[in-house]
Each structure stands twice: as structure tokens, then as C-alpha cells.
Amino acid sequence: MNTRFLPRLAVLSLPLLLVACGGDGAPPAMPPPAVGVITLGSGPMPIALEYPARLRGLREVEVRARVGGILLERRYDEGSAVREGQVLFRIDPAPFAAEVARARATVAEARAAANQAQRDRARIEPLAGQGVLSRRDLDAAIAADERASAALAAAEAALRTAQLDLSYTEVRAPISGLTSREALSEGSLVNAEPNATLLTRIVQAERLYADFALPAADAARLRELLAGPTAQDVRVELLDTRGVQLPAARVDFVAPQAGLATGTVEVRAVVDNREARLIPGEVVRARVRGVVLADARVVPKRAIQQGAEGPFVWTVDAQGLARPRPVQPGFASGNFVAIESGLNPGDRVIVDGVLKVQPGAPVAPVSVALDAPPGAPPADASGAPAGSRAPAAKSADGARTAATGA
Asked: Which of 155, 276, 337, 371 is the residue whose CA sits 20 to 30 A from 192?
């Protein structure tokens, strides 16, 4: 290689190097990344408490035999609706009819004996008063009359029992409702004692109960609302497994204590089912509406990050630097979360562009307009009502921002 051209090459390269370095020898500084922020406020936040629930009939009755015998006949269609007092089954009445006849004969015998004792007493009392008969004879006649009267009362009671047993051979519906299939077919032997034989079940399904369980804290808040002036605003929305809206329900019972096994509080709601859309035993979702957090500090779910020490959010301090802030999330409603601790009204929270943030690094905050939590009026990033907002526009990094900027 010819080395006599090296000094000239170095001289020619020096101006190019100076131009590439900007003339002062330092690289150009990168601008701080644009991030979407909201200014934290506080206010009421409607929340929806959602739990699994099971439907059951307003009244569910097991129809059992009250007397034993051979099941002769079923008089209803399985699964059909029956009326209160309708005959469902017939048990062989012959033995009970015979018992009624025997009891009637016993009553007749006891009545004859009682009449004879009354006549004897009526004859002896005047004679004893005249001194013809002794006091002992009078006492014996009175005792005989009283024993005969008692025997007649016992015989009449036995007759009523026999008649009741005979009436129980016709098993009637104790309530109106829907029947299940028969537990025993005709010709089977049913028992009354010691365990009465189950014949069928009846469910009153015109109205249903929706049973679900709440954590103790949620139940306490719900109980306060039901006892307050806004109790009429509390309602229960039911959804089936496909998410289809079902008839609304109302809470009519909150257990006074938590269960020892689960630590949850039982709640019951009543739902109208006259159209028979719901089936007892069905599992649904119960969404309690009307519960409001009075002074909530709300951020979007996307603003909450997970770190080694737990959840946190990025905030922007007065110098425009990004700072992590540990938080304690609380109730969630849609895409929003109420912060129980860690943030104060007026804090600027980063909600967009968090992947570009470094601890203590400067950022360019841009106010972001957010939709309001479900049930609350929309508000802008500063908490102003929707009517005072300027039209939204797209920022350079894709965040929805107010036209006035920040």
C-alpha cells in the first residue's frame, strides 16, 4: 500500500467526521416519550357485584304417604301442574274402611253403656236423698256414669282417627305447583312409619328464589343500602350461562351472620316466573345493581401494573418525571378499578404508554379523556362533566386526548 496518501486522507476525513457529530462532538438528545395521563379525582362509583346463584322454588314440598298400604293408582301426569287439594295417589282403602266400621261399632257400644249409666244415676240420686240408699251406692253410680262418658269419648276419638286414616288413602297435593315423576309405581307397598315413603315432589315455580353468597364486606354494604333511603335502587339482574338477560329479582333476605364453613353471607332474591322461563335448580349469574361507592378514586384497569412487591401505577410528579406508586386495588366495575390506598386526588396517573416509562425518567404527559364507569356520567381527565369536554382527538402515540391538550 502507498503510504504517502495517508496524511491527505486523514485531512479529508476530518471535516466529514465533524459534520456527522453535529459540530460540537455530542449526540442529539432524545425527546421524552409522550404518555397519556389522567388527573385523579374522587366521587361516587356504581359497582356491580356478580356471583353464581342457584334457583329454587318458592315452596318445595315432598309428598309422602301418611298411611301404609298398596299403591293402587296415580291420578296426575308426571311433570304437570296440579292444584292444591287435588288427588295425586290412591292407596288401598279396604283395611281402613274396615277399621272405621269397627270404630263406629265401638262408639255405639260405648254410647249405650253411657246412656245406661246416666239412667242408673238418675234413679239412685233421689233415693239416696231420701235415705233409702246409702251414700256408697250413690258414689258408685256417679263413678259408673263418669267412666261410661269417658269410654264414649275415647271411642269417638278412635273413630275420628280411623276416618282420618281412611281419608289419607287419597294422597292430595298440599300446594299448587309442578310435579316431579312418581317415586313408586302402582302396586308398590308404601310405608307410613318409621320413614314415610316418598311418592313425588311439588315445586311452586310461579316465583323463584335465587340463592347466592356474598363476602362479609359486600353483605354489610348491601345491608346498609337496603336499610337506607336508596333501598328501591337495589336490584338483582339474572343472566343465564349464555349471558342472556333474565327477569329481574329483588333482595328479600340477607343472613344475619356468615357461615362457619364458608365465611360468606347467604342472600336470597325473589324473581317472578309466571312465564315459566326459569327452571328450579338452574344455575345463573346474579348481578347486584345499586351499590355505590360514595368517595371512590377510580383508574382504568390498564393503568395498574404488577411488580415484585405487588400492584403499582406510574405517576408523573411536579418535575415531569415518572414515579412508581404502590396501590391497593378495590372494587372493579367494567374497565375501571377503585383504589383503596396509595393515591390521592390530584395525582397524575399514567394510563397509556406505560411500556415507554422508566423510573425517574422525564415524560411528556398528555391528558386522556376516558369513558366513565358503568352507571356514572362520563367525565374528562380532570373530572369535569361530559358536557364541558372539548371534542376528542388522537395524540401522536394513539391515545384519545382532549383538543385543549395538557
From this structure: 155
SS (H, E, C) 60-98: EEEEECCCCEEEEEECCCCCCEECCCCEEEEECCHHHHH
Q: Where are the domains of the chain?
A: 34-45+296-402, 93-167
- Omega before 377 within 30 of 0, i.e. cis: no
> Is the predicted pLDDT of residue 24 greater than 60, yes or no?
no
Fold of the CATH domain 34-45+296-402: 2.40.420
pLDDT-based confidence at residue 16 (cuts at 50, 70, 90): very low
Assess if CATH 2.60.120 describes domain 93-167.
no
Q: What is the DSSP string of 305-334?
A: EEETTEEEEEEE-TTSBEEEEE-EEEEEET
CB distance 183 to 176 below 8 Å: no
pTM of the predicted structure, to 2 decimals: 0.59
pLDDT reported for residue 3: 46
Closest CA to 385 of 369, 366, 401: 369
